[in-house]
Design goal:
Elements lengths: L1 E4 L4 H16 L4 E4 L26 H8 L5 H10 L5 E3 L15 E3 L12 H7 L12 H14 L3 E7 L17 H14 L3 E7 L2 H14 L7 H8 L2 E3 L9 H8 L3 E3 L4 H8 L8 E4 L17 E3 L5 E4 L5
Parallel strand pairs: 1-2, 1-4, 3-4, 5-6, 5-8, 6-7, 8-9, 9-10
Antiparallel strand pairs: 10-11
Helix pairs in contact: 1-10, 9-10
Length: 321
Amino acid sequence: MNIIRMSGGLGNQMFQYALYMKLTALGKEVKFDDINEYRGERARPIMLAVFGITYPRATWNEITAFTDGSMDLRQRLRRRFRGRHVIEYEEQGIYDPKVLSFDSMYLKGSFQSEKYFEDIKEEVRATYRFPELEQMHLPEKLYADTTACLSEIESCEAVGLHMYRSDSRTDEELYEGICTEKYYEGAVRFMLDKVKNAKFFVFSNEPKWVKGWVDALVESQITEGMDPEEAKAMRDRFILMQANTEYTGYLDMLLMSRCKHNIISNSSFSWWSAWLNNNPDKIVVAPDRWKNNVESNDIYTDGMILIDSKGRVNRRERKDT
């Protein structure tokens, strides 16, 4: 039996569950440790149920057997003098095919690559199909607001633009200097060039902080000599969306996935929002680095447009033929 250590928010949980689907497709028995990362007061909610997903949970005895975490006095003394004997493997890099080889292992990692589930991706896509809003039993105001946003998004050349404030992440040095103002400026310029009448719906985990940044982003698109009517029209292309809470954030993913095109940040939540976009002609713009000092090519999917921190189109991933 393998145990996958669940961690992070919805986007990470979706990658981990996609790995579970792949391992079970290979005939392996797999359970989840959804205890260790989610027992603190500040733990993020487990949100897979929005897709109707249930999963097998490892017992505490099973988890401690793999991680050598028993608090029995004899085991604690043994660890003190002989060291810990764990049966665990931590993913190396973004895609690590060795992860798929184990039959009895405690697996730790993010597993943020389509390569883990490429041959079953249609099954994954079907699993991550959002229910209709009417089936979500949302509070009346939230339902009305979400329905109105969805209607507007589906009536125009909508571009879902995700700004994730990296200050809220741990290991900040892994993420700083990637999704810069220049990155977003370059991404918007690229989209304006490719998508006639593009309208940008801006999503953020911290909208109060990002409002000033969005104002500057809009102004960066107003060129010298543009008349007032044109400038107003440009400003009207940008709509700052009201953020959902941690417990209703899946609605942001739903809305972004219904946009025709996406500008993503280097977050798993952002990645899935674009991946679930079913527009066959979608354009997806991504930062050309996902993490600092980590080779990240395996996170990018075919056809993504990569833009660097200075706003330059850096390279393009191959397109399906």
